[in-house]
Design goal:
The chain is α/β, with parallel strands linked by helices. The chain has one domain: 3-Layer(aba) Sandwich (Rossmann fold), CATH 3.40.50.150. It is built from 8 helices and 6 strands.
């Protein structure tokens, strides 16, 4: 993922994204939105392009991210029988009251560190405990066994740098030590990228905000082979 790719994806899937945005708009305020618009849209667009068979979501809360992920899998199913599955994990089950049952989706309540995760993960979405200890856990237990897997991690760049002693600080240090490039639409960390994406959204008629926050602190990267 880089800026050029992000812009290409916005253009390629503009019509489908417009329909999903309207669907998501109708879900509000019945569901508590956590992701900002651009990071949610890029998550959807990435899944559309990559067409992963198994998506693992760690941290659902009220299910805003879950609905974006399921929308991508649904839209990938157009014209084919199987389009992938979403396996979601959280210690609370609020998501069951806000996200309708879906044959593509399995929710498991409990501490993900004690769960039986699938051997093959084609896309990993992380938005759970934002502590340094949790980041150290998934780096050691998940990243170490995944190969070339695309990853999204939320709440990293609310400022130009991650908060000290946070999940983001541990993750960014790990990425930098291994020279793994990452992409962020964060308005604070990457203001020029954020501005260019807003311009493309405006051009495509996708700029009406779904929620007011403009932080977009997520990072996107691919684990090494």
């Amino acid at each position: 993922m880089d800026l050029t790719t992000a812009i290409e994806l916005y253009r390629k899937y503009a019509d489908d994204l417009a329909a999903v945005r309207e669907q998501q708009r109708r879900r509000l305020p019945g569901i508590r939105a956590q992701l900002d618009d651009i990071e949610a849209e890029l998550t959807y667009l990435r899944l559309r392009e990559l067409r992963p068979a198994t998506v693992v979501e760690i941290g659902t809360f009220h299910g805003w991210s879950t609905t974006w992920l399921l929308s991508a899998l649904r839209d990938n199913a157009k014209g084919i029988q199987h389009s992938g599955r979403l396996l979601s994990y959280d210690v609370v089950d609020h998501v069951l009251r806000s996200v309708p049952a879906d044959e593509r989706w399995t929710f498991t309540q409990g501490d993900v560190r004690k769960a039986q995760l699938p051997a093959e993960i084609d896309y990993l979405f992380l938005d759970a405990a934002h502590s340094a200890s949790f980041a150290r856990w998934y780096i050691a237990e998940l990243f170490s066994r995944l190969n070339n897997t695309p990853v999204s991690v939320h709440d990293v760049f609310h400022g130009r740098r991650p908060m000290p002693f946070s999940e983001g600080a541990v993750l960014v240090r790990w990425l930098n030590e291994r020279k793994i490039d990452f992409f962020t639409p964060s308005a604070k960390r990457a203001p020029e990228t954020f501005a260019e994406l807003l311009a493309v959204k405006r051009e495509l008629g996708l700029d009406q905000p779904l929620r007011p926050s403009r932080d977009n602190p997520m990072v996107f990267f691919d684990l090494p082979r």
